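ARCHIVE CARD
Drawer: 12
Card no.: 0347
Subject: one protein chain, sequence and derived structure
Cross-reference: see card 0346
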Amino acid sequence: MEIREAQRAVDRWIRTYGNGYFDELTNMAILTEEVGEVARIISRVYGRQVAKEGDLDKKLGDELADVMWVVMCLANQTGVDLTEALLASIDKKTRRDAGRFRDAASPAAAPQPEKDANKGQHAS
């Protein structure tokens, strides 16, 4: 499914089964909640957080799809064509960053600053 087609599918669903779009601020709050659910899975599966009972019952793909749903709702209700916006973003990043990362060290290999044990801050 193409992005534009997905935006139309979300709009059809809202108009057919929903009761209209939530207002933009409500959708922004829902988006924040959904991104938090993605963060919980990532921190438990790929990070050092220890999973609590039920944490791993949710699937990352499902939560990412929930994020996409709300992003598409926000785009639809504010008149943003996500296909055009994404293509413009890729073009901008290509022009700005074409050679930026090619010769850079891998983030995992980059030295980490020392932490000041007394303050929990990075030492300067």
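Annotation on reverse: Confidence is low (pLDDT under 50) at residues 116-124. The helical segments are 3-17, 24-45, 60-78, 82-97.
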